[in-house]
Each structure stands twice: as structure tokens, then as C-alpha cells.
Write a structure and sequence with these properties.
By secondary structure, the protein is of the alpha/beta class. 33% of the residues lie in helices and 26% in strands. The chain is built from 8 helices and 10 strands. Helix 3 runs antiparallel to helix 4. The longest helix has 14 residues.
Length: 231
Amino acid sequence: MIIFESVTKKYGKETALEEVDFTFQQGKIYGLVGANGSGKSTTLKMIAGLVQPTSGTVTVNGKKANRKIAADVSYLTELDMFYEGFTVADMISYSASQFEDLSLETAEELLRFMELDKAKKMKELSKGNRGRLKLVISLSRKVPVLLLDEPFSGLDPMVRESIVKGLLHYIDFEKQTVIIATHEIAEIEPILDDVVVINKGHMTAHFHVDQLKEEEGLSVVEWMKKNIKHS
């Protein structure tokens, strides 16, 4: 599990997260939602060990989240960080050299599912196909924690639904904790267990998706329209 204890993160005078206490449970898929600048990306970067709290602690499966936590965490950043001269196959090989847990067999399956040409160079790929490749690399790793920051950015809305369904095949529901920060709530709602709402650095709401439907008769999108007026 992932535990935030009294976590505050400041960038200069700006506060990205303030006094956050929260536990992400193992074996769940979380949707992390909120307006731009609400603290979603900072939350993921802290779990990935790329950003340290100004105060408080973040632990992942009992270990402090720092640079070494990469062995337990697969982090798909919203940034595009590819070597332009590499082919798709080169990027898979390079990623496998950096992460011993990356399954080449799973990567091959995902490349076929995502309909990516291994011989194509990175500079020849569209934004959407670069996004698909990031998903391939992230999902091919066999780690306890999977973090996806805006994973559908640049993808054609027509293919998002099929890709979301495909995610289910490559997630280990018993062992992995998955956190998806995205604006594409409607597409991912069918696979979510819980939703966590971040607003101005505070985790202001946490609910179970099925319970929301049963007790209030609302989808996540409907709940957000009703309760978050400016997101």
C-alpha cells in the first residue's frame, strides 16, 4: 500500500499539496481527479520518488519513496521522453535494460494490441502513437505500483475505449495498485474501484464508484459536475 502522512509540498511560495493524509490500498484501481494545478501530478511524482515532500512522509510498501523506489513503481509521465533516433523496438530494448522487471513477452503482446510498428523511428510516430508506446512500456513492467499520468493524452477518442478495456488484461488486480490521473473520466470509470478528488492541494473527497452509483444513482462524471463547479 501507499501511505501519505501529513504530506506538504511547496515549490517556492506555491503550495502543491498541504497536510495530506491518505492511504492507497493494494489491489485497487484509483482515479485521481481534479482541475489543472490541483496537485495530481505532484502526488504521482512523490509516489515515484521523483519529488520529495517539504514535510511529512510518503511510503510505498513500507519503504520511503525516493529514487530507489523505481524498482517497485512503474510511472507513466505526461511528458514525452524518447530518443528520436530510436525505433520502437530500440525503445523497448532500452527500457528493458533499465528495468529488470520489464517483460519482453508482454511488451510484444502490447505492441500488437496497440498496433505499433517496431521498425518505426520515434520521430516518425504521431503524438497518439507515442502515447501508446508509453503505455506499452509502463504496462510491461511487473511491479506492485502502476502510476499513469494523463495516459490518454493525444489518443483519438475513438480508440480510448478499446485501450481502456485492454488495460484490464495487463493489470494484476490482486497484487498491483493502479493510480490514474486523468481528465478522461468517462472512459476510465468502468474500470475504477475508487475516486480521489484533489482540489488546491487537498484531497477533498474519496468514494467507491459502485457505492456512488448504488446510493446516489450518480456516475463519477455526474458527481463531479454536481460538486466541483470549476474543474
